[in-house]
C-alpha cells in the first residue's frame, strides 16, 4: 500500500481537534461517512487504530496521540511551503509586520530596503518590541517575525538569519567612576549594579543579558528591572545602575551627554537574529527571511 494521501491526513487532523465525525465532515465539506472512510484508509496504511469510537465519544488511541504530535508540525511546515511557493508565483503582497528590539541598525535597514525592492506589492509595518518580552509579539501574532537579541531556545519558534556578532558595551552614568575608561573587564562588572529586565522574558535570556556572576565567578549586584530599553537608559543616566548593550545600540545613543558607553572585554559577543513561528510563518515573513539572508551574505 502506498503512502497516505493529504486528504486522509487532513481528516485525521480535524477529527483530532473536533473529536466528532459530524463536525469534522462539516469543516471538510464532506459527509460523515466520507470522514470514516478516510480514517479507515489511513489506519489501514499505518496498520493500527488511531481513533477509538463508541456511541458516546471519540478519542485518540495512544498511537493516535503520538502520530498527531509528529504529524501536526510536519503538516504545518508542508502547508507553509506550499503557501510560499504560491506567493512567489504571484508575487508577495499583503502586509509584513516586523518587530525589533532596540534600534533599526544599518544591516536591518538594508534588508528591509532590499525586500521592498523585491516585493513592492507588500506593505511593511515596523514595531518596537519591549526588551522584557522578546518572543511574545511573535507568539501572539502581533508581528510576523522579529529581530531580537539572542539566544532563543523556544520550541515553537525558529531562528532565521543571524546578524553579525557585536562586542558588548556598558551604558552607565557619565558620573560613574568607570565612565572615563577606554574599556572595562568582565570581572569589573562585580563593581556595578547591573540593570535587568522583568520576567516576561525567559530566565535563560535574562541571564544572558544581565549575568549574575562574572566569568571568574564573582557575583554581580542586581540593579532595577525594566521593561524597555529607554527605561534602562534613563535609570543608567540617573546612576541607578549600569546596562549591557550591543555596540550598535550604544552608538545610536552615544550623543546623550548624561550617559557614557564603555566597551566590555571578556564577555561573549551580542547577536541579533530573525525569529519566526516554527512551521507556521506567513509567506511574507518567509520571503523576508530569505532576503535577510541574501542581504547579510552580500555584506
TrEMBL record:
<dbReference type="InterPro" id="IPR036390">
    <property type="entry name" value="WH_DNA-bd_sf"/>
</dbReference>
<dbReference type="Pfam" id="PF03466">
    <property type="entry name" value="LysR_substrate"/>
</dbReference>
<feature type="domain" description="HTH lysR-type">
    <location>
        <begin position="4"/>
        <end position="61"/>
    </location>
</feature>
<dbReference type="GO" id="GO:0003700">
    <property type="term" value="F:DNA-binding transcription factor activity"/>
</dbReference>
<keyword id="KW-0805">Transcription regulation</keyword>
<keyword id="KW-0238">DNA-binding</keyword>
<dbReference type="GO" id="GO:0032993">
    <property type="term" value="C:protein-DNA complex"/>
</dbReference>
<dbReference type="InterPro" id="IPR000847">
    <property type="entry name" value="LysR_HTH_N"/>
</dbReference>
<dbReference type="InterPro" id="IPR036388">
    <property type="entry name" value="WH-like_DNA-bd_sf"/>
</dbReference>
<protein>
    <submittedName>
        <fullName>Transcriptional regulator</fullName>
    </submittedName>
</protein>
<dbReference type="InterPro" id="IPR005119">
    <property type="entry name" value="LysR_subst-bd"/>
</dbReference>
<dbReference type="GO" id="GO:0003677">
    <property type="term" value="F:DNA binding"/>
</dbReference>
<keyword id="KW-0804">Transcription</keyword>
<dbReference type="Pfam" id="PF00126">
    <property type="entry name" value="HTH_1"/>
</dbReference>
<comment type="similarity">
    <text>Belongs to the LysR transcriptional regulatory family.</text>
</comment>
Amino acid at each position: 500500500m502506498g503512502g497516505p494521501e493529504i486528504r486522509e491526513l487532513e481528516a485525521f487532523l480535524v477529527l483530532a481537534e473536533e473529536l466528532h465525525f459530524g463536525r469534522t465532515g462539516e469543516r471538510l465539506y464532506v459527509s460523515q461517512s466520507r470522514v470514516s472512510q478516510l480514517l479507515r484508509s489511513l489506519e489501514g496504511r499505518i496498520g493500527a487504530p488511531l481513533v477509538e469510537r463508541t456511541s458516546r465519544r471519540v478519542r485518540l488511541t495512544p498511537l493516535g496521540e503520538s502520530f498527531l504530535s509528529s504529524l501536526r508540525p510536519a503538516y504545518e511546515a508542508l502547508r507553509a511551503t506550499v503557501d510560499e511557493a504560491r506567493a512567489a508565483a504571484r508575487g508577495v503582497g499583503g502586509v509584513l509586520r516586523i518587530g525589533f528590539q532596540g534600534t533599526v541598525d544599518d544591516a536591518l535597514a538594508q534588508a528591509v530596503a532590499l525586500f521592498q525592492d523585491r516585493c513592492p506589492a507588500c506593505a511593511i509595518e515596523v514595531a518596537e518590541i519591549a526588551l522584557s518580552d522578546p518572543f511574545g509579539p511573535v507568539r501572539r501574532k502581533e508581528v510576523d517575525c522579529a529581530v531580537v537579541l539572542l539566544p532563543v531556545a523556544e520550541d515553537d519558534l525558529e531562528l532565521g538569519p543571524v546578524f553579525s556578532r557585536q562586542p558588548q558595551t556598558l551604558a552607565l552614568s557619565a558620573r560613574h567612576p568607570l565612565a572615563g575608561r577606554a574599556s572595562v573587564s568582565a570581572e569589573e562588572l562585580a563593581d556595578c549594579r547591573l540593570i535587568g529586565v522583568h520576567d516576561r522574558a525567559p530566565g535563560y535570556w535574562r541571564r544572558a543579558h544581565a549575568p549574575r556572576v562574572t566569568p571568574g565567578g564573582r557575583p554581580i549586584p542586581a540593579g532595577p528591572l525594566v521593561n524597555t530599553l529607554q527605561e534602562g537608559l534613563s535609570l543608567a543616566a540617573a546612576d541607578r545602575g549600569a546596562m549591557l548593550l550591543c555596540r550598535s545600540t550604544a552608538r545610536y545613543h552615544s550623543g546623550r551627554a548624561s550617559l557614557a558607553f564603555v566597551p566590555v572585554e571578556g564577555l561573549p559577543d551580542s547577536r541579533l537574529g530573525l525569529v519566526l513561528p516554527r512551521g507556521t510563518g506567513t509567506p511574507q515573513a518567509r520571503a523576508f527571511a530569505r532576503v535577510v539572508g541574501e542581504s547579510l551574505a552580500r555584506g
